[in-house]
UniProtKB/TrEMBL annotation:
Residue ranges, annotated region (Disordered): 218-257
GO biological process entries: arginyl-tRNA aminoacylation; tRNA C3-cytosine methylation
Protein name: DALR anticodon binding domain-containing protein
GO molecular function: arginine-tRNA ligase activity; ATP binding; tRNA binding
Species annotation: Oreochromis aureus
InterPro entries: DALR_anticod-bd, DALRD3, tRNAsynth_Ia_anticodon-bd
PANTHER family found in the cross-reference section: DALR ANTICODON-BINDING DOMAIN-CONTAINING PROTEIN 3 (PTHR16043:SF1), DALRD3 PROTEIN (PTHR16043)
Pfam families hit by this protein: DALR_1
Transmembrane segments: none
Compositional bias ranges of the Basic and acidic residues kind: 218-242
Gene label: DALRD3
Domain DALR anticodon binding: 430-571
Domain of life: Eukaryota
Length: 571
C-alpha cells in the first residue's frame, strides 16, 4: 500500500535531493539543517551533497551528482561503503524520482534516474500536479503602484516613463503569481474607467481596477486627514525647530504655513520597530496627493477579510524615498498592515528618450512590419490585429521583466531596428514556439480525421521507454518536473519575516524559464519528426511524444498565464 501511495505522489527534485543526501549520510541526517564535526571530519549541509544536472552533455551519463569533494568529507579517501551505495540505489519516498543505477567515477558518485518509469509517472497521470505550486497560501496582498496615482491628475501614457511602465508590468506579473499561490490580490489605485491610461494598459493585456469618471474618494480622504491630525506622531509647534524637512514635495515645502500638518516619520519606524527604512526620512509635510494615495490604499484593503494583509509597493528606485514616506504616513494614520517595497531599477534608452506610449507604438509597428515580412498579405483583419497585440505585449513584457528587478534595463529603441520572429529574442521567440505546439496538434487532429492516425490511447497502453532522444528527457527533467517548485519559491518571498522594508523576489525567473524552455524545445522540434509515417509499428513512439508535448503545451500555458499572456494558437 505504501508503495502505491508513493507512486501516486508527484515526483519532485527537492525531495529526491533530500532522500539522496539522507542515503549518503545515513544516521547523521537525524539532526536537520546543521553541519557537524565527527572527530576532525566536517559533514556538509544536505542540500550541498548533491547537484541536479541540467546540461545536455552531463545528462547523457547522469542525472544527479555527489562530487568527489563532498565524498571526501564523508568517507575516508572518498570510498563509498557498499551499504551506503545500496541505500542510494534502493531510494524510495514520497515524491522521490526512481533510481535506475549509480556508480563512482572520477567526478564523484553519479546517479541515473529510471527515465521510462519517470516519463510514465509524470505523463501518465496528467501534468496538472506539475503546473501549480506545492501548497496554497492564505492572506490578502494589495499591489500598490505609485506610478499610477494622480499627482494631482491621472497619469497619462504620454507622460509615463519607461521606468514607471516597468513597475506597472511587474505589479501585474506579481498579481498573477500571487493569485496562483492562493492569495487574494487587489490592485491600487483605482483609475477612471474612460481614461487614456486604462486604454493603454488594456492594449498591454493589463486588467486594472476602474471606477466611473465622476467617482470620488473624499470620505476616505477626510478620514485619513483626521487620523493624521490626531496621530501620536504629529509634530507639534514646539518641535518645529528640530524637524528635518521630509518629502512632501518641493512645492509643499515652499508653501508651508503655520497650519501645515507634519508627521515625524523617523519616530514611526523607530518606535514601531520597522527595520529597513531610510534614516533620513525625518519629518514629512502632509499634502493632498499623499492623502489621496493613503485613501486609495485604505480603499484597496477595505474588503480584505484575511487575517494577514500585506501591501506591496512596487516602485522605481527614483520614487523609493517618496514611497517610504507614504508607507510611514499610512502607518502613522493607524494602518497596521504589513508593508513591503519591491523596488525596480531604471530603464535606459541610449541615444533617445521615449515615453511609455511612444515605446509601445514603436514595438507595435515593428511587430506588424516583421509579421508582414514573414507572412505577407495574409497579415490583415481582426485575427492578425489580435495576434500582433499579444506579440507586442509579449515583446514589451519580456524586455522589461527578464532582468533582476533591482538592476537597470537597457533597451534598443532605434526605429530602424526590428522585432525578429526568429532567434531566441525573448517574447516573440517564446510565443512562436508555443504556437508551434498548437500547430503540431492541429496537424495530428487533421491526420486523425483523414484516417492516417488513430486516437491517442490511454497511457497504460504505451511503452514510455520509447522516449530515448536526449531532448525528451531534457524537457521533462529541466522544465516540466521543476516548474511547480519554481512557483513555490517565488511565493515564499512574502512569507519571510524580517529583512527590512525591501523585498527581493526573483521576478525574472518565469521569463528566463520560458526562453530557456523555448530554446530546448525548438532544438528538439527541429531535430525530431514527431508525426511520422502512419505505420502501426511507429505509433507507440509517436504517441509517447505526443503525451510529452501535450504536457509541454500545458506548461507553456501555465507559465504564460503568470505573465497574463494568452497563448498564440496559430502563426
Amino acid at each position: 500500500m505504501m508503495e502505491n501511495i508513493e507512486e501516486l505522489s508527484p515526483l519532485r527534485i527537492t525531495p529526491t535531493v533530500r532522500a539522496l543526501s539522507s542515503a549518503l549520510r545515513g544516521k547523521r541526517e537525524d539532526v536537520h539543517g546543521s553541519s557537524r564535526v565527527n572527530g576532525d571530519r566536517v559533514f556538509p549541509e544536505p542540500e550541498k551533497l548533491w547537484f541536479k544536472e541540467s546540461s545536455a552533455k552531463n545528462l547523457r551519463n547522469r542525472d544527479f551528482l555527489s562530487p568527489t569533494t563532498m565524498l571526501n568529507t564523508l568517507y575516508a579517501d572518498g570510498q563509498v561503503p557498499p551499504a551506503v551505495m545500496s541505500r542510494v540505489l534502493s531510494l524510495r519516498g514520497s515524491g522521490v524520482l526512481p533510481v535506475a543505477g549509480g556508480e563512482v567515477m572520477g567526478e564523484g558518485l553519479r546517479v541515473r534516474v529510471d527515465r521510462a518509469a519517470t516519463f510514465r509517472a509524470v505523463l501518465g497521470g496528467g501534468a496538472a500536479e506539475y503546473l501549480k505550486p506545492l501548497s496554497q497560501r492564505q492572506g490578502c496582498v494589495v499591489l500598490n503602484c505609485p506610478a499610477l496615482h494622480p499627482k494631482p491628475n491621472t497619469p497619462s501614457p504620454d507622460t509615463m516613463s519607461l521606468g514607471q511602465l516597468r513597475t506597472v508590468l511587474l505589479a501585474d506579473h506579481m498579481g498573477a503569481l500571487l493569485r496562483r499561490q492562493g492569495y487574494a490580490v487587489s490592485f491600487c489605485p483605482t483609475l477612471p474607467e474612460d481614461s487614456d491610461i486604462i486604454s493603454f494598459l488594456r492594449a498591454l493585456g493589463i486588467d486594472w481596477p476602474t471606477a466611473p469618471a465622476n467617482w470620488t474618494n473624499e470620505e476616505r480622504e477626510e478620514k485619513i486627514q483626521d487620523s493624521l491630525e490626531k496621530s501620536q506622531y504629529r509634530e507639534r509647534e514646539m518641535e518645529r525647530g528640530r524637524r528635518t524637512s521630509g518629502g512632501g514635495g518641493r512645492k509643499a515645502e515652499e508653501g508651508e504655513n503655520e497650519g501645515a500638518l507634519r508627521i515625524n516619520l523617523k519616530r514611526v519606524f523607530q518606535e514601531e520597530g520597522l527595520p529597513g527604512y531610510d534614516p533620513s526620512l525625518g519629518t514629512c509635510t502632509v499634502n493632498r496627493d499623499g492623502v489621496s494615495q493613503l485613501a486609495q490604499l485604505d480603499l484597496s484593503t477595505a474588503d480584505c477579510t484575511a487575517a494577514m494583509v500585506t501591501a506591496l509597493h512596487v516602485t522605481s528606485c527614483q520614487d523609493e524615498f517618496r514611497q517610504q514616506q507614504i508607507a510611514m504616513l499610512w502607518r502613522a494614520s493607524g494602518a497596521k498592515h504589513t508593508q513591503r517595497h519591491l523596488v525596480c531599477g531604471p530603464v535606459k534608452t541610449p541615444g533617445s528618450h521615449l515615453t511609455a506610449a511612444q515605446y509601445l507604438q514603436l514595438r507595435r509597428g515593428q511587430m506588424k512590419e516583421a509579421s508582414e515580412m514573414k507572412y505577407g498579405d495574409q497579415v490583415e483583419g481582426q485575427t492578425w490585429d489580435d495576434i500582433i497585440k499579444v506579440m507586442t505585449s509579449a515583446t514589451v513584457r519580456f524586455e522589461l521583466l527578464s532582468t533582476v528587478h533591482t538592476s537597470p534595463v537597457t533597451l534598443d529603441v532605434k526605429r530602424e531596428g526590428g522585432v525578429s520572429t526568429k532567434g531566441p529574442r525573448g517574447g516573440v521567440f517564446v510565443m512562436y514556439n508555443c504556437a508551434r505546439l498548437h500547430t503540431l496538434f492541429d496537424s495530428y487532429e487533421r491526420g486523425v480525421e483523414k484516417g492516417l492516425y488513430p486516437e491517442i490511447p490511454e497511457d497504460s497502453q504505451l511503452d514510455f521507454s520509447a522516449l530515448k532522444e536526449e531532448g525528451e528527457w531534457l524537457l521533462l527533467f529541466n522544465y516540466l518536473i521543476p516548474f511547480s517548485e519554481l512557483l513555490e519559491q517565488l511565493g515564499q518571498a512574502l512569507d519571510s519575516e524580517g529583512g527590512g522594508a525591501r523585498v527581493n523576489i526573483k521576478t525574472e525567473q518565469i521569463c528566463k524559464f520560458l526562453v530557456s524552455l523555448s530554446k530546448d524545445f525548438s532544438s528538439y522540434y527541429n531535430r525530431v519528426h514527431v508525426l511520422g509515417e502512419p505505420l502501426s509499428h511507429l505509433f507507440n513512439q509517436m504517441f509517447c511524444r505526443l503525451y510529452l508535448l501535450r504536457a509541454l503545451r500545458e506548461l507553456y500555458h501555465s507559465a504564460l498565464d503568470t505573465l497574463n499572456l494568452p497563448p498564440i494558437r496559430q502563426l
